[in-house]
Amino acid sequence: MDQLIVFATLILALAAFIWGRIRYDFVALCAVFVITITGVIPPEDAFIGFSNPAVITVVAVMIISQGMLSSGMIDVLARQLKKLGESIFWQILGLCTITAIASAFINNVGALAIMMPVAIKLARKSGNPPSAILMPLAFSSLMGGMISLIGTPPNIIISSMRIEQSGSSFRIFDFAPVGIVVSFVGIIFMAAMDLKVLSS
Which residues contact 188 (CB under 8 A, 6 or more apart)? Predict the structure, then answer.
């Protein structure tokens, strides 16, 4: 019965997320409320997830990202990236490389939040569609997050589980050999594909 309640709650929450008419935080809290009052989890454990290091890291990074937006650093980055010219290939290559590198050190969600306004401003000024840059930007933040331990919440969670199971955690760059190769190949591929699509 507990499994049915959990699956039903997840499906309803997912449907509400897709619908988009209700605030995401309200939907998430309602889901927690449902599985708590039905006895699936005890009340004292209802909000234990908020103390998870991954959640705290993401929140902290988003605060830092908003601070960078308010400080004007985004405008400084945008001015520097104007030197890439109007070619979509070089814009994607430059923006995605910076995003991937940033994602390795400040969490991929934060890196994407920082670079999105820069990408939109650069695309509009050069006459390129913002959508052609935003999708590669999203993928590059995910790929860059694979480079380091702190790059993405799943890496932090897996490292925490490893400590519990074996007593030792991953080192910060244990993920780098795979992450760097995937990021490099992925960024080149996306830049080339966007150039081909927009040129045809």
Answer: 93
Range of the domain at 6: 1-50
How many structural domains are present in the chain? 2
Neighbours of 156 (CB within 10 A): 22
Which residues lie closer than 8 Å to 59 by C-beta, 6 or more apart? Answer: none
Per residue in 114-148, pLDDT tens?
788 788 878 887 787 888 888 899 999 999 989 98
pTM for the model:
0.66
- Verify that 178 and 136 share a domain, yes or no: yes
Q: Do the Cβ atoms of 52 and 89 come closer than 8 Å?
A: no
Q: Give CA separation, 63 vs 59, 69, 189, in Å.
A: 6, 10, 32
Residues 27 and 66 in one domain: no
* Nearest-angstrom CA–CA distance, 139 and 183: 9
From 50, 66, 85, give the residue that closes a domain: 50
33 vs 82: CA distance, rounded Å: 48
**How far is Cα 74 from Cα 85, in angstroms, rounded to an integer?**
18
Tokens of 138: 């999203």
CB 189 within 8 A of CB 96: no
